[in-house]
């Protein structure tokens, strides 16, 4: 199998139950055709499923680009496609916050020098505060 077109679209395992002979009711692993119980956990099955997903990634990205550029697609869908494409490309916005410890170091140095705890170093203002 080389693409996702061979994966059962109803998302049911292709295996049959040994007891009843009927189809398995479990969902197959992502990109696979069988559930974990019927061989989906095997390394070779997982590798084949991963290969199917990777083979479909270029087509999926192309479809996202088509959605983004089509004037017939509603704006919220176009925006969601753009966000999804950027997310998949690991081009999301900054998610970390940089914190400078310099003001706290100044306060601690002031405490170590014997200044009262309520006195801030010169040039430092309290914006918000809370007392216990």
The radius of gyration is 28 Å
List low-confidence stretches.
Answer: none
Structural class label: mainly alpha
How are helices and strands ordered from N to C? Answer: HHHH
What's the main sheet like?
A: none
Number of helices: 4
Number of strands: 0
Distance between the termini: 66 Å
Beta fraction of the residues?
Answer: under 5%
Helix content: 40-55%
What would the average pLDDT be, to the nearest integer? 76
List the helices and strands and how they pair.
Blueprint: H1 36-40, H2 43-69, H3 75-88, H4 102-112
Helix pairs in contact: 2-3
Question: Any descriptors?
Answer:
mainly alpha; 4 helices; elongated; Putative_zinc-bd
What does this structure look like?
It is a single chain. This protein is mainly alpha-helical and 132 residues long. It has a domain of 85 residues. The chain has four helices and no strands. The longest helix has 27 residues. The model has no long low-confidence stretch (mean pLDDT 76).
Write a brief caption for the model.
The protein is mainly alpha-helical and 132 residues long. The protein has helices spanning 36-40, 43-69, 75-88, 102-112. It contains four helices and no strands.
């Amino acid at each position: 199998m080389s693409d996702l077109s061979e994966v059962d679209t109803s998302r049911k395992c292709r295996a049959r139950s040994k007891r009843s002979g009927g189809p398995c009711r479990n969902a197959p692993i992502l990109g696979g055709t069988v559930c974990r119980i019927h061989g989906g956990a095997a390394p070779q099955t997982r590798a084949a499923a991963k290969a199917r997903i990777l083979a479909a990634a270029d087509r999926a990205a192309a479809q996202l680009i088509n959605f983004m550029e089509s004037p017939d697609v509603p704006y919220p869908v176009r925006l969601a496609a753009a966000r999804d494409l950027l997310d998949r490309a690991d081009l999301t916005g900054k998610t970390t916050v940089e914190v400078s410890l310099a003001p706290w170091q100044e306060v601690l140095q002031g405490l170590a020098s014997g200044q009262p705890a309520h006195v801030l170093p010169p040039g430092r203002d309290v914006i918000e505060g809370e007392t216990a």
